[in-house]
Amino acid sequence: MKINEHRCPANHPCPAVRVCPVKAISQKGFGLPSINNDVCINCGKCIKFCPMRAISA
Ligand code: SF4
Predict the structure, then answer these.
(1) Structural domain harbouring 24
(2) Contact 56 CB / ligand 1 (< 6 Å)
(3) pLDDT tens across 34-53, in order?
(4) Are 16 and 33 in contact (CB under 8 A)?
(5) Coil vs helix vs strand at 25
(6) What is the pLDDT of residue 39?
């Protein structure tokens, strides 16, 4: 998974952090979240969840 920095406003707590079942998404402050692809199981929940459509495979 990857996060499109042009779509993510990076100005709020990322709600997708909470939907990831394996805690692969992390965020420092309100900054651009990052996805640990070593942990990600490609479930796709974050892609469907992000209202900004900032996350893609
Ligand atoms: S695809 Fe699933 S496991 Fe991977 S980062 Fe998104 S929510 Fe987490």
Answers:
(1) 1-57
(2) no
(3) 999 999 999 999 999 999 99
(4) yes
(5) strand
(6) 98
- Give residue for tokens 């996350």: 55
> 18 Cβ partners below 8 Å, 6+ apart?
none
What whole-number distance in Å separates Cα of residue 40 and Cα of residue 14?
17
**How many Å lie between the centroid of ligand 1 and the Cα of residue 57?**
10
Q: What pLDDT was estimated at residue 55?
A: 98
Q: Ligand 1: does its nearest atom lie under 6 Å from the Cβ of 17? A: no
Query: pLDDT per residue over 8-32, tens digit each?
Result: 999 999 999 999 999 999 999 999 9
Domain count, the chain: 1
Nearest atom of ligand 1 to the alpha carbon of 25: 5
CATH code for the domain in which residue 14 is found: 3.30.70.20
